[in-house]
From TrEMBL:
It comes from Aegilops tauschii subsp. strangulata. Residues 1-108 form the SGF29 C-terminal domain. CDD domains: Tudor_SGF29_rpt1. GO terms for cellular component: SAGA complex. This is SGF29 C-terminal domain-containing protein. The lineage of its organism: Eukaryota, Viridiplantae, Streptophyta, Embryophyta, Tracheophyta.
């Protein structure tokens, strides 16, 4: 799983936790899948969203089994956080950083 910016409009920045399906070495684009079904506002049907995105729109997560590989973010730093129970990300500010490198980070 990675974080992906799915819209390029700076005013309406949309980021999601997605699964990488394929990486095209020629175009250097990722094909990703938002595994949380979205709502089609017109038909009220649930559907999975796929995107083709450039590398600059992707942020890899640290290795889950190795918390020491996760970057430390200081108090006041702007980060992306996950809305609980969704794959949607929002801008947040770090209130306090982890005490030990062995402390795990949380993803949903």
């Amino acid at each position: 799983q990675v974080a992906a910016r799915v819209k390029s409009d700076d005013e309406k920045d949309e980021w999601f936790v997605v699964k990488v399906i394929h990486f095209d070495k020629e175009t250097k684009e990722f094909e990703v899948l938002d595994e949380e079904p979205g709502d089609d506002e017109e038909s009220a049907q649930k559907f999975e969203r796929k995107y083709k995105l450039p590398m600059s729109y992707i942020i890899p997560f640290p290795k889950k089994g190795d918390p020491s590989s996760a970057q430390d973010f200081g108090q006041g730093r702007q980060v992306l956080a996950v809305y609980p129970g969704t794959t949607a990300l929002y801008r947040a500010t770090v209130a306090s950083q982890r005490k030990r490198k062995s402390d795990e980070y949380v993803t949903y």
